[in-house]
Amino acid sequence: MTVEIKNAGGTWVDISPYIAFGGLKRGRNDVDGPEAGRTMDATMHRARVATKMRYDITCRPLKTAELTLIETLIMPEYIQVRIQDPYYGRVTKKMYSNNTSAGFCIRKPDGTEWWNGVTFPLIEV
After folding, report:
1. Domain residue ranges in the chain
2. Which three-class secondary structure state does DSSP give residue 76?
3. Which one, of 82, 81, 116, 75, lies nearest residue 98 by Cα?
4. Among the residues of 1-125, which ranges form H helices?
5. pLDDT tens, 6-32?
6. What angle do CA 119, 4, 123 make, to 5 degrees?
């Protein structure tokens, strides 16, 4: 599975090497229109107007420089993501990311700092 994000210079950056084993979770979000919902007889009426994709990413432990790269890629309000989706195939989507988290793990004797628990979503616009 390859996940690429276009950087500010227009170059695609493959973030797959930073994703933990089992660290990519795919979800589909249906967007329903105002007519959707249950009536008094409990019948569900769907009025789907769009389907949007969401990928939740969990990274392997990252060095500070790797975390900085990831944060820089997902910081813009909107980003371009290229991904191999099991249903849609290889797609490029306009997405955004929010609510990122990272926990400081350890500073090694050589000064290298490591972060773990790095998670963030990629949500289709």
Report:
1. 3-124
2. coil
3. 75
4. 64-74
5. 999 999 999 999 999 999 999 999 999
6. 50
Residue 26's nearest CA partner among 118, 95, 101 is 95
pTM tops 0.85, yes or no: yes
Q: Supply the Cα-derived Rg of the chain in whole angstroms.
A: 18
Give the position of tokens 């988290």: 101
Six-digit token string for 24: 């990519």
Question: Cα separation of 83 and 95, whole Å?
Answer: 11
Residue 27 CA to its chain's centroid (Å): 10
Name the band, by pLDDT with cuts 50, 70 and 90, for residue 1: confident
Class of the domain covering 3-124: mainly beta
Residues 6+ apart with CB under 8 A from 86: 26
